[in-house]
């Protein structure tokens, strides 16, 4: 399994390149990026050097939940799987969730379920799109 390490300044270029905003999964694509990369103090940023990043933010220590965003240069499956393992085993979270504009097979394979779709919720690729919140609970496993 891919290993995630803590954020260091040497990973700033990777973060800036792959970050497409707080989406559950996103893959580097050419073109302008309207989102500034995540700041190290905005949440917990974990890095797969040369591959991508996983960001846990909106961390709720009482409910043991967090929003998860994964951004990669190529296929996000490895980073998503490593992030799910970190959430479950190291952070001991009950639930992780994230937002996507369309169904992605990779999140279903990692145990996420669609919870609610919000019409006209995201601005992506120059258009307003529906956003679906995907979640995964670990306490039911």
Strand content: 35-45%
Shape: globular
- Return the domain count: 1
Summarize the biggest pleated sheet: 8 strands, mixed
Secondary structural class = alpha+beta
Strand segment tally: 8
CATH topology: Aminopeptidase
Q: Spell out the CATH superfamily.
A: Gcn5-related N-acetyltransferase (GNAT)
**Helix content estimate:** 10-25%
C-alpha termini separation: 20 Å
Q: Report the average pLDDT across residues.
A: 87
CATH class descriptor name: Alpha Beta
Topology:
Blueprint: E1 5-6, H1 12-18, E2 25-27, E3 44-48, E4 52-60, E5 65-72, H2 77-90, E6 95-100, H3 105-109, E7 113-124, E8 127-137
Parallel strand pairs: 2-5, 5-6
Antiparallel strand pairs: 1-3, 3-4, 4-5, 6-8, 7-8
Structure description:
The protein is built from 3 helices and 8 strands; from the N terminus they run βαββββαβαββ. With 141 residues, it is an alpha+beta fold. Strand 3 and strand 4 form a beta hairpin. The protein starts with a strand and ends with a strand.
Entry keywords:
18% helix; globular; 141 residues; eight-stranded mixed beta sheet; 3 helices; 8 strands
Short description:
This protein has 141 residues and is of the alpha+beta class.
């Amino acid at each position: 399994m891919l290993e995630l390490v803590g954020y260091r300044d040497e990973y700033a270029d990777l973060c800036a390149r792959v970050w497409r905003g707080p989406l559950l999964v996103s893959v580097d694509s050419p073109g302008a990026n309207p989102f500034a990369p995540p700041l190290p103090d905005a949440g917990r940023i974990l890095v797969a050097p040369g591959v991508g990043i996983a960001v846990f933010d909106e961390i709720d220590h009482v409910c043991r939940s967090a929003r998860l965003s994964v951004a990669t240069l190529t296929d996000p499956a490895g980073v998503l799987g490593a992030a799910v393992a970190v959430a479950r085993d190291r952070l001991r979270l009950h639930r992780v969730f994230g937002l996507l504009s369309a169904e992605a097979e990779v999140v279903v394979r990692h145990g996420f379920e669609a919870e609610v779709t919000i019409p006209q919720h995201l601005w992506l690729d120059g258009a307003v799109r529906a956003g679906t919140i995907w979640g995964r609970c670990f306490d039911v496993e």
